[in-house]
User: What shape does this take?
Amino acid sequence: MDSCDIVVIGGGAAGLMCAATAGQRGRRVRVLEHANRVGKKILMSGGGRCNFTNLGTTPANFISANPHYCKSALARYTPADFVALVERHGIAYHEKERGQLFCDVSSKQIVALLVDECRAAGVRIDTGCTIENLERDGDGFRLTTSLGAMTARSLVVASGGLSIPSMGASSFGHTLAKRFGHTVLPTRAGLVPLTLSGRHQDELAGLSGIALPVSARCNGVRFDADMLITHRGVSGPAILQISSYWQPGDDLRLDLLPDRDALAFLEELRVAHPAAELRNLLAEALPRRLAQRLCETRFANKPMRQYTPRELKAIAAGLHDFALVASGTEGYRTAEVTLGGVDTNTLSSSTMASRHVPNLYFIGEVVDVTGHLGGYNFQWAWASGHAAGLAA
Ligand code: FDA
Assistant: This one.
């Protein structure tokens, strides 16, 4: 029977980082990946260019029942550490906006970097490997897999979240965590487009493809970014970000003119163009077709001189405080991340080790730590993988 020091389940971002780190410490490490290749989510990330970190990463960029949990790992493996690795591998990159770093050429380079690091550290990577059984074996673990039986002193669970099942996502890590006595906090799709139905969908029907800057607010949190109207509802960075804070029934508000005082703007228009209709003038500040639609559905359209100050005030309020009634999300099929997961109260924040079972570790997205959009989720994968790789 094969035996090694560490088996890492999942050859994604966190698993490969952990394996390389542990391998560099002289540990005999084996990565078991059930998909036919490693790093599939990395490949599809950032539109094929992988937004591999964010220079502005702070614990405030993460959602978790315990907001302090991520601090230690993030402090010990920083964006600068990963950037140094990227530079060592000669990968060209650029900052797109707000600290988001992307590869100039391809996400494939990040997967190659991780695989090269693993190879140099003597890590064995097995793809297409199904885990059939997993049991405690003294202080270690015994696994039965489609590639044979093996034992390991330590087991690192890096099997990711539930989003994009077609890319290999599975509930393996959550099931295993529960089996070994860990609480798993309820999971749901995050960084996901929102769907609309009924009259709310009708209001935006035919406008798909229109994008505009908005400020999206929900449950005391606010994101300023673009929104995109889709066939089924709304998407774009502002909506993906706020989706992680929204649940059905929650009040979601949009400021459609985040950079303008709408009332001052409307009053100026009334003075400058008293005979012109609102629907035509509003198009100076909003995409034309959206402006026209709003003047059919929310605001009475007429020449500017006919509006009373009270009516203008109501229109301004409608633009700054647009109630978006979403019916749901597109779910795990398109979500970038999974909220919830293995309860951090059952893990050590410095090593990612289980508090219940010696030599068992949970890293990456399977844990209840979820980043905002913008490279934070990979930074968590690198940092948590590195922490466990140093400890296991
Ligand atoms: P990850 O999902 O990377 O890896 C888990 C691995 O475990 C997978 O390879 C899976 O096949 C394997 N596995 C699952 N069950 C198994 C089992 N039973 N046995 C063996 N193996 C198993 N983040 C970011 O920071 N910047 C970005 O640009 C993007 N872009 C992006 C785009 C899209 C379309 C998605 C879906 C997601 C992103 N993300 C992102 C999020 C990011 O991809 C994600 O948070 C990390 O990949 C999480 O890393 P993990 O290693 O935890 O899971």
